[in-house]
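S.,

Sequence below, as promised.
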Amino acid sequence: MNTDSNFFQTFKPGIPKRYLLLVAACFWTFAGGMLLFRGFSVLKFDSSIIEIEESGSVLAGLLFYKFMFSTISLKHINRILNLKEEKPCFFSFFNGRSYLLMSIMMTTGIALRVSGIIPISYLAPFYIAMGTPLLLSAFRFYYNACKVICRNKNGVSVT
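The prediction came back faster than expected:
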């Protein structure tokens, strides 16, 4: 049994916790950026209410960040920083529950878009409303990663 453990430890893509925060930031940036790009590119630019749709979607995203994603991203940051391993697995920027939730959300979004049940122009505001908090959460990860990396590099606490 010990040899199995050593085998998996040898090939585990381990990464220092401080850089795991950057991995998480990149992942959240990609997800948020992709949703924002898709949402803004779908909205019809000749519509007279485009500014209202965009503004309302961004406002919904800001509220979603304030009341939900700020807590979620802080929990992930604290979980990463409190991991017992010094070099946890590269994929441990999410816990199992978060991977499951992300899979369900992605599958639902793709299924709705591909099926045509809901026109893409109706999905665009939802893409923007979801992309906004994801991107804001990514900035929070970048900030904390820089803080931890600088503290570690300089031996000085950055507040």
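The two ends are 44 Å apart (CA to CA).

Coffee later?
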